[in-house]
């Protein structure tokens, strides 16, 4: 099976209203539609742009205000998915549950369903700066194009969680990300390649670009989208189907062929998934 994916290098800048956010989001979705994409991925924390709208006194909103937009965000992207007939991974949005904040990836299905995956591993800055809570479970999601997982930014740096996603049947890992410097960006990028090699899966990665000068922890962004493959003969030599230009406002698109994954798992140059030594180290059950 083949299907097409697009990844958005979302440009963060100060806006005046929720309608500004809606128009910018739809611009990228319409571009993905023109490329006939089946899936479109937005970055982690891209809805922090809403914090730049500010309050009646002209002060930027805080992270505690962001969950107030949850219903509008979900209704907006649910409508986009239905109207454009595509699966939208709506980056992540901060929600509040029982008084605690969580950074949650959202999958919007074309039929109106919404699925969620909370970020499992939380960075020190997310804890100290925003008091963010950690997700407690991993899910994979069935779609008409196959089984996917949503693992956010720091999550991809942990081999165990991606191994679990593959053991549960995921062939594609969508990784919304948000990094503020080269070091953070390359940690996520390099480990995305490692996870694709280890598990013989595709990884679709993207990040925020631009800046929100009035929003704490979002004043700097360093991002680039990439559509990453295992490193074997059926795939491009560098394990890259497509990548964006660093820190540019843009969208990238490529076709994923699941049959190639199945081929290399069975008779590739290496068969990393099949050759794991579960007699020496435990596997997910």
TrEMBL record:
PROSITE patterns: CN_HYDROLASE (PS50263), UPF0012 (PS01227). InterPro entries: C-N_Hydrolase, C-N_Hydrolase_sf, UPF0012_CS. Residues 3-258 form the CN hydrolase domain. The keyword S-adenosyl-L-methionine does not apply. GO terms for molecular function: acyltransferase activity. The keyword Metal-binding does not apply. It comes from the Bacteria. Keywords: Acyltransferase, Transferase. SUPFAM superfamilies: Carbon-nitrogen hydrolase. Belongs to the carbon-nitrogen hydrolase superfamily. NIT1/NIT2 family. This is Acyltransferase. It comes from Paenibacillus campinasensis.
């Amino acid at each position: 099976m083949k299907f097409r994916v697009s990844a958005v290098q979302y440009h963060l800048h100060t806006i005046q209203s929720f309608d500004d956010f809606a128009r910018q989001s739809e611009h990228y979705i319409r571009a993905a539609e023109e490329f006939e994409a089946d899936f479109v991925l937005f970055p982690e924390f891209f809805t922090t742009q809403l914090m730049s709208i500010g309050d009646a006194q002209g002060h930027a909103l805080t992270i505690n205000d962001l969950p107030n937009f949850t219903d509008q965000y979900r209704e907006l992207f649910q409508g986009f998915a239905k109207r454009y007939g595509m699966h939208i991974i709506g980056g992540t949005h901060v929600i509040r549950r029982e008084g605690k904040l969580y950074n949650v990836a959202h999958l919007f299905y074309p039929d109106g369903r919404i699925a969620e995956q909370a970020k499992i591993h939380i960075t020190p800055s997310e804890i100290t700066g925003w008091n963010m809570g950690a997700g407690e479970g991993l899910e994979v999601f069935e779609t008409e194009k196959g089984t996917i997982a949503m693992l956010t930014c720091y999550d991809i740096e942990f081999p165990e969680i991606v191994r679990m996603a593959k053991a549960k049947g995921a062939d594609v890992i969508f990784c919304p990300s948000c990094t503020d410097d080269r070091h953070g960006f390359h940690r996520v990028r390099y480990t995305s390649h490692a996870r694709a090699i280890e598990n013989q899966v595709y990884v679709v990665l993207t990040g925020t670009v631009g800046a929100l000068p009035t929003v704490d922890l979002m004043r700097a962004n360093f991002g680039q989208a990439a559509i990453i493959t295992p490193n074997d003969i059926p795939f491009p030599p560098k394990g890259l189907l497509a990548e964006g230009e660093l820190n540019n406002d843009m969208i990238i698109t490529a076709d994923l062929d699941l049959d190639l994954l199945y081929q290399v798992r069975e008779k590739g140059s290496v068969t990393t998934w099949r050759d794991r030594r579960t007699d020496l180290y435990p596997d997910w059950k």
